[in-house]
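Data availability (excerpt). The following record was deposited with the supplementary files.
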Amino acid sequence: MQPGFSLRYVQNITVGGEEQKMKDDCRVPLLVPRPKQFELTGGIADIDSAAIERIFSAEIELDLILHRAQGPGVLAKQLDSFRFKEIPEISPQGYQLSLSPGEVSISASTRLGFWYGIITLRQLIWYYSSSFKAEKSGDENAMKGTIQIPACTIEDRPDFPVRAILLDISRDRVPRMETIFGLVDLFSALKYNQLQLYMEHTFAYKAHKRVWEKASPFTGEEIGELDTYCTKRGIELVPNQNSFGHMERWLKHPEYQHLAECPSGFTDPWGVYRPVGSCISPAVKESLFFVNSLHRELIQYFSSRTLNIGGDEPWELCQGRSRPLCEKKGSGEVYLEFLLKMHRMVSELGCTMQFYGDIITKYPHLVPGVPDDCIVIEWGYEADHPFDEKCRLFEKSGRTFYVCAGTSSWNSIAGRWQNAQVNILRAAENGLRHGASGYMISDWGDNGHWQQLPVSLPGWLYGAGVSWGIEENRKLDMIEALARYALPVPGIWDGHLSRTIPFCGINSTTLDSARKTAKAILLLSEAYLHEPVRIRNATLLTAILLEASNPYFRKALKAYPGADLKAVEEEIKAANNLLNEAQSLQHLHGDILIKEIDFTTRLLKFASEYGRERLREGVNEIEDIPSSIRKVLSDRLGGLIEDYRELWLKRSRPGGLSDSTGRFEALLDKLL
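Predicted structure:
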């Protein structure tokens, strides 16, 4: 039993006059996140199909169920035997859920508190959906019956008031609307309450078509629709536009190069020359007016009054146009001065400014100069990131800050689960210790966003757990969590579950397949642990595939001749065997999820086989591999690229696809 849980076992329960042992059901069910307190109270709560339909239908959105009655302290909406009670003493976002043989009640003091009570009730219904007892009905399309849930009480509240997800939609993958809606359903079900779409060039700014025309960007109308969708599900959609570094998609065009710090290129911190500038210059007066015009247009489509301006990794700052300023004032001072000017403009727009803290923490003496009403995001994605040291700076200066971990899915093909798990947990531990007001988990898409969507699922589930309750969720059973809440049914949380329960509720066959699929995902995400060397923020197999298109990885690989990849191949084989046994999940997903994991397995296998040849002693360049072997490898890679294109279009828009496949094609050209 996890710390913070209270539990009383009930040995014999009478149901409908028939005594039975609730051996399996009289235990703490796995909920994600796991709540602070859970107690079995004896008896069975029967929830009929009509009530289930209401609980999962669009009609039970926040505004409807929270319509206030005339009587003090009571919410008017009552669904059959369901009650909603307002209790001011319950902490914000906290709730109490009680299921008894005669009544189901949810008590809270805020909108979100009631919403989280409903989400937990939904999870309980789904968890016990195998108990569904169908009744005969004159309408063959109408499903009538009941689900039996052990009577219980739950008291719960989050550790962090803000629990955010950031999705990278600028590194080539821009999700289709149905994809992002499905993800919002998942994030809401996991009790996240903030979502950010990381934008560099993927919003359709009216005056800047040249920048986004090939990217399939989000339009203002789409953002407005998504904003409404998020709000109805308890999520704040926060605008995010990087406004300092990472601007190369703009600065590569001649009409924007006058804003660049280094318009003719620069050498990055890793010694790699980049022919296009990535940072706008604080020495150029027009820079501020330019980013302010972007912010002004962007925020009108969001209901949130928070704006993330990015501000991370302005790599070439002080190398070009701002060099005289930096020599006069200092690099940190120039950065902070530009940030303060941007803050003033963001405040005039009526917004609270968020920005990344990687630069300001390099100059601890400048941290007190950050405005009180800013939110600093302290990010780091390796297991050893010094969250304790960095968070202490913000705590000491009294600044508002979030901690930000990552899924470790990018630059990896299949993920780096052990790194992600430690990183996610340490961010939560240190954020809570030092008073962070929010927790964010980022899912990036560096170098083409090659990873398939299922690769990110473990990080999202575990992040949801520890950001809600560290002690209750630090040892979350990831196989079971993935199997029950992420894999069995697509769109579990989209309002249609009640119509699917009898057909694909969690029966033993479905659950067994889901567990095998979950285990396969985790095995693949730990294959990197068997690589003979470790590369920060990447895996060796990914670096091998990116060598032809990325100078950084080309430079790194020279240090690893003769590396042995046999142990990696064994891990991939074991995952593939599990996936073959889990094929029964295909009919639930139109087989896209299985195809995505299967593709991940095949791409890893190709990378390991190619890597064996590439790292062989005496092979200094790709062209040194014998031509007969290169021919076989090129044929296989060509087939993988075609499968990749097909899978991409299932969830993502076409813009960015050619950039992403271009990295594969750079290797293909070398093999031909």
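Summary of structural features: DSSP finds 24 helices and 18 strands in the chain.
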